[in-house]
């Protein structure tokens, strides 16, 4: 399909996707077969929905965009659905997703169910900067510091209701060790889902901020210090957390004041927490904390997750010895974890980790129970 032809089809696409949007509010999977769209074919867009944009490091007649962000910026700022297919390559850029409509970013691959075979790598190098950020405005994405953080005004309108990334790698390689926040991904005032996607940084790799609902499925998230941080709601399913060292905690969460009731917090389910490699494994044995409270309203749960021997006997830890930030509401919890890093006696002795009963776990036991508007945008493949 030529670029010229796809732009002619734009108005057709919009009326076509209006129908799909209605379906999408009830459906969980994409309205097309992504395996066919992502496969490497003579016409790379074969199998993709009409109007799919193509990005390649080498512009040809089929790929009119040489950066992913230029393709994103070409889309109308409205509620229409869009899909972007990205050809193999290393893209040195920062992605900002601010439009409200559903957007799918697909990496070309022959192995759509294997993140280790991803062919598309997006790289950014910046202290405090994101590699990919999903938020309607810059202000709505701000983190702030201290126990309360940045006071985002209450009048921000919600951003995208359905952003999805499949088979992409996001790296913020500011420095090869913890040196302040260097985010690979940020999500605020948006629903964003990542499948078979890998995130690499050392500190604050994943940030989910105010009214951020983020779903991760079969992903890899690598970090050293506080590498899941924020005050929104990520659900991490069947994924690998790679420990590149131990600093702070794996999760650094805080309570949030929003106008919308939600079960903010970080939920890691049916996943694995393992050292990044065997040499680091020897250095960090028994040293990594599951998390610490950015403020005392921290909520996080590791459930039915494999914990390697890198995890400390007490599980979670206080913020610091001089400022523990742990009180009766602090909710640093586990349910049914296993592996050498699971130590019930150690958890009891530490007195900061809550070990949940099945009944206590039940009200958090699925993404539809914790995201503010349910999980209709979650693809459970
Ligand atoms: C999607 O396409 C692949 C490759 O053609 C095929 O194997 C698979 O069965 C299709 N999936 C569905 C749900 O149709
Ligand atoms: C690209 O353009 C060439 C020359 O016009 C044409 O022969 C070829 O089929 C085009 N390729 C695709 C994939 O559209
Ligand atoms: C770029 O695309 C052109 C036309 O398809 C091709 O001849 C060339 O080998 C490509 N270059 C690279 C570096 O892929
Ligand atoms: C997009 O949809 C939302 C929710 O239905 C609506 O409030 C908003 O006005 C729509 N925006 C545009 C640009 O159509
Ligand atoms: C993304 O947003 C940030 C913050 O507004 C800005 O500094 C950066 O230039 C933006 N990047 C792109 C590619 O638009
Ligand atoms: C996934 O891809 C990696 C890298 O190509 C390969 O080594 C591995 O065997 C693949 N895993 C499966 C289950 O196919
Ligand atoms: C929530 O808002 C109240 C009132 O503005 C403020 O006193 C409190 O510190 C806030 N708490 C958090 C955790 O942001
Ligand atoms: C939102 O509120 C801030 C101050 O709280 C104000 O400066 C801004 O103009 C408001 N924006 C809109 C779109 O109403
Ligand atoms: C192991 O991982 C650490 C942390 O990312 C890294 O510094 C080190 O170079 C890695 N070692 C090997 C042998 O890959
Ligand atoms: C994903 O789930 C399968 C099936 O339960 C399990 O074997 C695998 O270890 C899980 N992956 C991770 C990274 O935990
Ligand atoms: C800490 O110890 C107190 C006193 O025994 C107990 O009430 C509380 O539940 C313990 N907290 C945790 C998280 O184990």
TrEMBL record:
EC number: 3.1.1.11
UniProtKB keywords: Aspartyl esterase, Hydrolase, Lyase, Signal
GO terms, molecular function: lyase activity
Domain Pectinesterase catalytic residues, every copy: 61-360
Pathway: Glycan metabolism; pectin degradation; 2-dehydro-3-deoxy-D-gluconate from pectin: step 1/5
InterPro entries found in the cross-reference section: Pectin_lyas_fold, Pectin_lyase_fold/virulence, Pectinesterase_cat
Pfam family, any one: Pectinesterase
Tagged with keyword Hydrolase: yes
Signal peptide region: 1-27
First-level EC class: hydrolase
Similarity-based family: Belongs to the pectinesterase family.
Protein's recorded name: pectinesterase
Organism whose genome encodes this protein: Phyllosticta citribraziliensis
Organism classification: Eukaryota, Fungi, Dikarya, Ascomycota, Pezizomycotina
């Amino acid at each position: 399909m030529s670029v010229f032809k796809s732009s002619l089809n734009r108005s057709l696409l919009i009326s076509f996707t209006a129908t799909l949007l209605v379906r999408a509010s009830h459906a969980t999977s994409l309205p097309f077969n992504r395996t066919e769209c992502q496969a490497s074919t003579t016409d790379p867009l074969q199998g993709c929905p009409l109007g799919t944009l193509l990005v390649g490091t080498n512009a040809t007649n089929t790929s009119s965009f040489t950066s992913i962000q230029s393709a994103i910026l070409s889309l109308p700022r409205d509620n229409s659905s869009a899909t972007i297919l990205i050809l193999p390559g290393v893209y040195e850029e920062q992605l900002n997703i601010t439009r409200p409509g559903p957007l799918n970013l697909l990496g070309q691959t022959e192995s759509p169910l294997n993140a280790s075979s991803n062919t598309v790598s997006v790289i950014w190098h910046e202290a405090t900067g994101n590699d990919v950020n999903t938020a309607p405005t810059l202000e709505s994405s701000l983190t702030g510091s201290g126990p309360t953080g940045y006071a985002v005004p209450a009048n921000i309108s919600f951003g995208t209701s359905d952003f999805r990334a499949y088979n992409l790698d996001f790296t913020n390689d500011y420095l090869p060790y913890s040196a302040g926040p260097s985010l690979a991904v940020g999500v605020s005032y948006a629903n964003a889902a990542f499948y078979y996607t890998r995130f690499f940084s050392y500190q604050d790799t994943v940030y989910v901020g105010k009214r951020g609902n983020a779903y991760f499925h079969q992903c890899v998230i690598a970090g050293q210090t506080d590498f899941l941080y924020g005050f929104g709601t990520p659900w991490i399913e069947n994924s690998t957390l790679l420990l590149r060292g131990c600093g702070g905690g794996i999760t650094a969460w805080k309570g949030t004041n929003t106008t919308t009731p939600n079960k903010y917090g970080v939920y890691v389910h049916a996943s694995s927490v393992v050292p990044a490699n065997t040499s680091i494994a020897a250095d960090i044995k028994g040293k990594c904390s599951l998390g610490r409270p950015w403020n005392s309203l921290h909520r996080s749960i590791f459930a039915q997750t494999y914990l390697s021997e890198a995890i400390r006997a007490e599980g979670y830890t206080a913020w610091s010895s001089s400022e523990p930030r742990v009180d009766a509401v602090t909710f640093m919890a586990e349910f049914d974890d296993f592996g050498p890093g699971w130590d019930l006696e150690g958890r009891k002795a530490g007195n900061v980790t809550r070990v949940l009963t099945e009944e206590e776990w039940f009200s958090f036991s699925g993404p539809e129970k914790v995201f503010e508007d349910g999980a209709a945008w979650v693809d459970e493949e």
